[in-house]
Design a protein that fits this description.
Blueprint lengths: L1 H27 L2 E5 L6 E3 L3 E6 L2 E6 L11 E3 L2 E3 L6 E2 L5 E3 L8 E2 L1 E4 L4 E5 L1
Antiparallel strand pairs: 1-11, 2-3, 3-4, 4-9, 5-6, 6-7, 7-8, 10-11
The chain binds FE2/S2 (inorganic) cluster.
FE2/S2 (inorganic) cluster binds next to loops.
Length: 121
């Protein structure tokens, strides 16, 4: 009995260490610079969606707020999650569930001369 409790505790300790280490590694990456094409209204990068409306830019995490699937498609100006069908408008707000929270909005700096965007994480 004591041995199996010790094994379970050791397993939790290993998992906890991996989770904390992963958070520390992510915290070390504070910003990322990506190419940006000003002629596109919707730009999908791995973890980000850049949306241009008129001259206004918004950058969102591409992780669906339901269960975290990556959103990579758009239809009729709606972002569509491939996993369970949530849709988000171009301001990142959910229009159809199961997601109920808006996409995470991210700060950015635009370098038009080099067509690059630096996104704050
Ligand atoms: S993860 Fe996007 S709708 Fe479920």
């Amino acid at each position: 009995m004591k041995l199996s409790a010790g094994i379970i505790l050791a397993g939790f300790a290993v998992l906890w260490d991996k989770m904390v280490r992963s958070d520390r590694e992510m915290a070390a990456i504070r910003q990322i610079t990506l190419p940006y094409n000003p002629n596109r209204d919707f730009t999908f990068h791995d973890d980000f969606i850049i949306i241009k409306k008129n001259d206004d830019l918004q950058v969102f995490s591409s992780r669906c707020t339901h269960l975290g699937c990556i959103i990579r498609s758009i239809e009729n100006e709606k972002l569509i999650c491939p996993c369970h069908g949530s849709t988000f408008n171009s301001d990142g707000h959910p229009e159809k569930g199961p997601a109920v929270k808006p996409l995470k909005k991210l700060a950015y700096q635009l370098d038009n001369s080099n067509q690059q965007i630096t996104i704050e994480l």
